[in-house]
Give the backbone structure.
Amino acid sequence: ESGNVRVRGNMFIRDSVAVYIDDSPFHPDDSDDFERNVFRLDDTGVIFHSSPHGTSFRRCSFRDNGVQVRVDGGGDALGMVWDSNDWDDYAGYDLNGDGVGDVPYALRSLSVDLVDAHPNLAFFAGAPTLALVEAAGRALPLFEPRTILRDPHPRMEPLPLGGLDAD
């Protein structure tokens, strides 16, 4: 139940859950800002309890995580600001070479949708079973999973671990 929190220049590495945001910011006029943080090798990078609001993630790096971002309760993170982050699962391109993807990053996950609908499937988290479900959902898109978040300006290169404070 905090607000007006600024989290900058941290490395979240090999965590079960790197950041869990429950009911923050608590007051509608408050905001929480995450900037230039690195999320690497986490089981889950960021979890929100219900659909979040008033939080921003800018210039963060999401690499080699089991799940990048999850929203409990079947919600989404579309009401937040996601801007200029780098994502290892971004499948876009950069035709003009400015280091920013030419198409927005959209996080969608069939396996997360299935676990939300059937919590007992969480037992298979990290197992090849859910990875196969995810791969099948991309190869044979019979139904499209819901969009969890959008980053309109995804970065093409990862944030350097040694230069978190550099611009």
